What we know:
Blueprint: H1 3-11, H2 19-28, H3 34-37, E1 39-45, H4 52-59, E2 61-68, E3 71-78, E4 84-86, E5 95-102, E6 105-112, E7 117-125, E8 128-135, E9 146-152
Amino acid sequence: MSTKEKFEEFKNSASDLNPKDLDNFFDSLEPITLEEILGEWKGGQLKTGHPIVAALEGIRWYGKTFISQLDVKPLVCVDKDGNFFSDTESMNGEASIWPVAFRDKVSTSLVYDGVPTVAHFRKVDQNTLIGIRDGKDALDQTGNYFYFFLERN
């Protein structure tokens, strides 16, 4: 099974995924550079039962926009009228991107301006990324990370 096929299997799963399977898949992926990540991305959650899902649904999270290293809109949301906006309240600001080591690989990571939270990215392919939310209070009650994906618009 190809990397993309495995990702699609995870993405389309009707039941909760085993976080250890996602850990292994994430660790097998290649890093992404600052230049490769620039642009607009539509996001989604990989089903693990992590409580952050409810918060993202509550703010109507759509995706992320990487304009430059120091200008990132991490919580692009959709209002009730269908308009896109950058939610700067939920995470106390926006973000920047930096090369950061995580699990023995240096890859582009998103660092929030106002909270001790980092999102680490690896690429499924040039148009598909998997992210892990890391930082204080990032793990759920069973000790697992929140996994999400981004697909290039």
